[in-house]
Each structure stands twice: as C-alpha cells, then as structure tokens.
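WARN retry 2 of 3 for item q-0093 after timeout on previous attempt; input resubmitted unchanged.
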Amino acid sequence: MSSPGRKKVNRPRTSGNRGAKWALLIALVLVVALVVVLARLTADRNSQSATAEGPQTDTRSVKKEPEKAPVSPDAEFQFYTLLPEQGNQPPATTPPSSKQVPEPPSSTTLDAENGYLIQAGSFNQAKDAEARKAALALLGVESRVTTVTVDQRRYHRVILGPLAGKDVAAVRRQLDEAGIETTSPRRAPAR
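OK item q-0093 returned
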C-alpha cells in the first residue's frame, strides 16, 4: 500500500533520449573530423603553390631603393616635366581656343602697377571655401569665394586680389608661413 502523504511522480524514461544523444555526439565528431581534413588539404595546397612559384625570399635581405632628395619648398614644382618622365601621361587634349588662359608670370617679372590674383584653395563644398575665407580674414588678408563649373562639377575657389605686383610676394610668404598653399599669381582681367 502506498502511504497517504506521498504522491506518485511520473518520471520520463531516459532510454529513448540516450539514442538521440549518441547520434548527436557522433555527428559532432564527424563534423570536427571533416573540418580538420579540409584544413590540412588547404594547407597542403597552399604550400605546394608557394613552392611552385619559386623560393621564398627573406624580407630582411631585400634592399630598399635609395631615397630621392626632398624637393625644397622654394623650388618651383615642374609637374608637366616630371609627368612625362614617369610615363604617366594624361591623354592629350587641346584647350578650347575661345577662352585663352594667360600664363602666370614669374615672381621676378611681376609688374608693380598691374593687379594680380592668387588662388588660396578650391573646394567641393561651399562651407569649406567659406572656412578658408574666414581663416584668411583672421590673417588680415581680404579674399572672396567664386563658384565655377568644370566638367559638370561645381568648385568653390578662394581668390585673393587684385593685388599690386609689389605686394604679391609678401602675401604669398605670409600664407606660406600659415600653412596655406597658393597658386602662382596671374594677371587680373582688365576692368
């Protein structure tokens, strides 16, 4: 007889779960073995391709090319003469003859009476051009922002001038000391 205070508890039989546990364990072992075999095959294939390419060189024995002497900031950069020497030439294009761009005068040939323009930056965003204009104003240099379209892209250029020829060198030196790159001066169009 059963005692009146105890209840019978139905416990599930575990013999059915044991088979599922063993099947899961065997499947897991097979997957791990498959991964190990594939890893070894891949490693063998990589080592065979590396030996087929030739002997490996020690990176410590590779000699560096001698470094070129740095270009002084006073030297004029000759982009169009360096580019052909390196063999990286853009396709030859002829500029439209309706709008001729005057050659920028060298600093030694600046005429004291004529006005010159200097570009202190060209930006895709108008806010960047306005920030450069503000930085120039803090240096005491007056500038303006002009918008141009080149190849269906809009650029905002920061232009200084017209400046007298005698003032150009001093303004460029001041901007160079402030870390602002400028273009060569060009003659201001006649008004």
